[in-house]
Design a protein that fits this description.
disordered C terminus, Tetracycline Repressor, domain 2, 69% helix, 2 domains
């Protein structure tokens, strides 16, 4: 028997529970998913589920720990260590890819705070750290000749970008009636954030973001009837 013939060990039950909950919560929201559905998705009895997590609140707290770590890697990464200017386009794309992967944390904030109130200060601390890091990234873009703006303008840019990124899915639901968020809707949000940067881009910056990394180019190729489909 070769090494490739050996079956990979099955993930631990706790990991499988969290993976299943992430998928279910993304699809329907944590409030709508029952413990019976979670157990069925994992292939275990409800009693076994309660052995690992007594309450849905504990599941959300465990998922947030994963989300916090993943978002810090994507957003609080030190892009300044790379000498390639194209890293800035990838940086924005990575941030919105995280929004899609963990969309229930953006879409269902009110329900999450109701189910797991202890998460409120943790989420606040994460947003504060993200805001500081994005400001540092903008300073790097200025140093690289990609962005131009006064310190006050850059501070405002960071806040406005965070407002769109944080509440984009609320806007889709409340203003567009889009209840089933798709990947193209998240890409649309990325294009809205990108539009905030455009007035501050230098000639070098415009050349950089016309290389195919601009999320707005992806958005422009999406049929409007798909974006505004209400479900």
């Amino acid at each position: 028997m070769t090494q490739t013939d050996v079956a990979k060990p099955r993930p631990k039950t706790r990991v499988r529970i969290l993976d299943a909950c992430k998928e279910l919560f993304n699809e329907r929201g944590p409030m709508a998913v029952t413990t019976a559905e979670i157990a069925a998705a994992v292939g275990i009895q409800e009693g076994n589920l309660y052995y690992h997590f007594n309450r849905k609140e504990q599941i959300l707290e465990a998922l947030f720990t994963e989300f916090d770590a993943a978002l810090r890697i994507a957003v609080i990464a030190d892009v300044g260590r790379s000498e390639k200017p194209h890293r800035y386009g990838a940086y924005l794309n990575d941030c919105f890819a995280m929004m899609w992967e963990w969309r229930f944390f953006y879409r269902d904030t009110v329900n999450i705070f109701s189910l797991a109130p202890a998460l409120a200060p943790r989420i606040g601390a994460l947003i504060d750290d993200i805001q500081q890091q994005i400001r540092r990234v903008l300073d790097s873009m200025v140093s690289d000749g990609i962005l131009s703006g006064s310190p006050k303008q850059l501070d405002q840019l960071v806040v406005n970008a965070l407002i769109i990124a944080t509440y984009w899915m609320d806007y889709l639901r409340s203003r567009r009636g889009i209840m089933s968020v798709k990947r193209e809707h998240v890409d649309w949000g990325a294009s809205q954030v990108m539009s905030l940067y455009l007035p501050f881009l230098t000639a070098k910056g415009h050349a950089l973001f016309n290389t195919g990394l601009n999320p707005a180019q992806h958005f422009a190729a999406i049929p409007s009837n798909t974006l505004f489909e209400k479900k």
